[in-house]
Design brief:
Elements: H1 3-20, H2 33-44, E1 48-53, H3 57-60, E2 69-75, E3 81-90, H4 97-114, E4 117-125, H5 126-133, H6 136-139, E5 161-162, H7 171-178, E6 186-187, E7 189-192, E8 196-198, E9 207-215, E10 222-223
Parallel strand pairs: 3-4
Antiparallel strand pairs: 1-2, 2-3, 4-9, 5-7, 6-10, 7-9, 8-9
Helix pairs in contact: 1-2
Length: 234
Amino acid sequence: MDPSRRLAEGVGSWLMHEFSCNRSGLFNEKYMAAPISQVLAAQYGLPVTSEYRHPVLAPAMTGPGRRPEVDFAVLDDQRMLMCVLESKWCGGSGLSASDVIWDLLRLELVFHLTVSDAYFLIAGKRRDVERYFNSKAFTGQVYRGSHRRLLKLDSRRNPRLRVDSPQKDRLPIFRSLFAGFPQISFASRLSTSLCYRYPADVPLYQYQACVWRVFSPPRTPRFKPDEHALFRSP
């Protein structure tokens, strides 16, 4: 079974179980750690680490502050990364474009460095998830008659997330995210697989999980923000 599907089914089923046990008042991003770690451990047959220091961004960060991490990581006996995962809980206020873009960029950096599996998971009440997928934060402004969504939702052709030439409404987001890492080599385009949702057809007041695989295709050009006209410091 595709790990994306297994993660969506495992986390989505667990949320519905907890909902049926009248524990939905506890739901948040941290509360999902148990099902996520259990599914990953079963999928890879290896221990799961939470809040794992990012292998690219953490060494590059200078000054005070917490070093960048990934929410979950699976490492083999030689401490080689096999899988990384970022998760987000989608509540009534949705998610910010900045937070989602930063998660996707960090996942792609690990994928590019280690060729490990990289997954992004969003879970929440179906009503809130659907509202977010239709929000401006997710779709962006209309460009040439269509939207550039942050993630792939269906089988229709969906442009990759443009990193080196974002649309105008997202340019300030990328500039802010790149400010602390001007010499890191980012992918010019970022791709996600088709979304797995589970349960797919659930009442709006109940819960579901959505999972994507994050990657950059072979030979995708890369760039450093400090060497790019849109992002380099004045």
